[in-house]
């Protein structure tokens, strides 16, 4: 395909006059450029994800799935498509997403790259169909494989983050809810539960969305108390269910295997049942009587000791824990703690978070 006045090497520099591009050829060139750019984009995004699967997680299966997808994408990148490239005229190379410069953690980075790959595959599917019907089909299948990879990888990441979490903030209604939670996140908090027993659903939804966004920005896990529907509606990382809430088996059917389900327990029997039902973590309490959960008798430090010896899943001591008694709870065997008032009513939530975490991390390294 040569334009009029084209400098042709095959004629030793003699300028040959040939027919200009037809309109059809021009459109084809544009389609080729779109395919060329998106083939690169999809592979680059997958490479970023693959590096984490390989070096971060050491996961052979997910690494090899990324590699296979990259190779399959590369097999569609023909010389004809590459020849349509025109980077100098491509206005898109300068455009970056505002958040690209300020991504806060591995989860945000992975999420952004999955988004990039899926968008590119969708473009390849739609424009590929114009060139070759098999191309449309192939990229549609790859897009579904990437969704599966995303579900598995993000679910795995969630569980890893839960294992690493030492301090859990359960919120209470507050005029400064977002400010307090953000201050705690700045102190290093990585696990938040939105708990409000009385608000209207419209307010709950608004606040849950704001907290979810905040948690995503800080790379923290976001859990919703009591309500599986709300957790799903805001794409939360999971839900916390008490003994009077929905059974774990039903919640699991709704939430799938990748989201987290926590269960409150007050005695060994409830603990064993929660583990058997497939809870991802449990609350162990109330360690001390607390106005936040009025009328519930303390399970005491004895139950903390029991949990330390018998729980096979992550567990959080909860109920009346603050800076003055956290070391007693740690001494009874806890390495994870959940609090409401300690942080929600703190004058300096960042400092209190840092202090509580420093105690929990100190004991962690001593126990190793
Ligand atoms: C981490 C954690 N542990 C326990 C609870 C209490 O749950 P539940 O017994 O359902 O009581 P409410 O919080 O719903 O009043 C919790 N929320 N989080
Ligand atoms: C929400 C909740 N659940 C508990 C349980 O034992 O299941 S204790 C509790 C409240 C904890 O609040 P604070 O840190 O203010 O004492
Ligand atoms: Mg509940």
User: Which ligands occur here?
Assistant: ligand LCLJCK34, the ligand Cc1nc(C(=O)O)sc1CCOP(=O)(O)O, magnesium ion
**Biggest pleated sheet:** 8 strands, parallel, barrel
Question: How big a fraction of the residues is strand?
Answer: 5-15%
pLDDT averaged over residues:
91
Percent helix, as a range, is 55-70%
User: In one word, what is the shape?
Assistant: elongated
Q: According to CATH, what is the topology of the largest domain?
A: TIM Barrel
- The total beta strand count reads 10
Radius of gyration: 27 Å
Looking at CATH, the homologous superfamily of the largest domain is Aldolase class I
The helix/strand series, from N terminus to C terminus, equals EEHHHHHEHEHEHEHEHEHEHEHH
Distance between the termini: 69 Å
Structure description:
This is Thiamine-phosphate synthase. Mg(2+) binds at residues 226, 245. Its EC number is 2.5.1.3. Residues 146-368 are annotated as: Thiamine-phosphate synthase. Pathway: Cofactor biosynthesis; thiamine diphosphate biosynthesis; thiamine phosphate from 4-amino-2-methyl-5-diphosphomethylpyrimidine and 4-methyl-5-(2-phosphoethyl)-thiazole: step 1/1. This protein is of the alpha/beta class and 368 residues long. It folds into 2 domains: 21-89 and 97-159; 165-367, Alpha-Beta Barrel (TIM Barrel), CATH 3.20.20. The chain has 14 helices and 10 strands. The chain has helices at residues 23-56, 60-75, 79-83, 106-131, 133-164, 177-186, 201-218, 228-233, 248-255, 268-277, 300-310, 326-331, 341-344, 349-367, and strands spanning 6-7, 15-16, 167-170, 191-194, 221-225, 238-241, 260-265, 281-284, 315-318, 337-339. The longest helix has 34 residues, at 23-56. The termini are far apart. Residues 225-226, 242, 245 line the site of magnesium ion.
